[in-house]
Amino acid sequence: MDTEQQSQQTHTCSKDCTCAKHDAQQQAPAEERPQPAPQQARTAPAEPAYTAPSEDDIEVDTKGLVKIIAMVVVAAALAFTVYAIVTTPTIVGAFFGGDPVVNDDGAPLRFLDGPPQGEMQKVTITMGSGGRYQPYPVKLKAGVPVEFKVDPSIRGCVSRFSSPELGLRASTAPGENLQYFVPQKKGTYQFACPMGMGRGIIVVE
Fold first, then answer.
1. What is the pTM of this model?
2. Does residue 118 belong to any structural domain of this protein?
């Protein structure tokens, strides 16, 4: 094989090539011309299939919601209790043993060992509606002895109460359900059960 034949076999046509092979390709019908290789179509990635939540997942979510609601209720109850304690001096004294308010001219009440002779005011404390002790208010005259009773029909937390302002502690228990004292200072005094569920007022005139 001579040099010209080797050159034709190894020759590669370019865009501006004028060789006989290139001219033959340009003059050949379109269907006989070499076609570029087809490109493969691009496919979008498949989206993950939707999976419905199982009953176990729903049960876990429900339990979590119940826990959150329970925590909110407990926090609200604690906040209300703290507010009641802070805003009611009577309850503070009932819980922490506050001393009765005593002015320079003597204690608000002077307790007696037994029933006095002569004139006496009689009071029996009962529980009425709305968490109010009855009578509401208790009206007493200063300087006149008082027979102070707690009705045994009162039950639960409200069966005992106190008034740190007066130095008074009473309940349905023996020894505290009947007391005698003389109110010595005029004024309005509050009393309440330890939880603040029952409240009352004593007015000394």
1. 0.50
2. yes
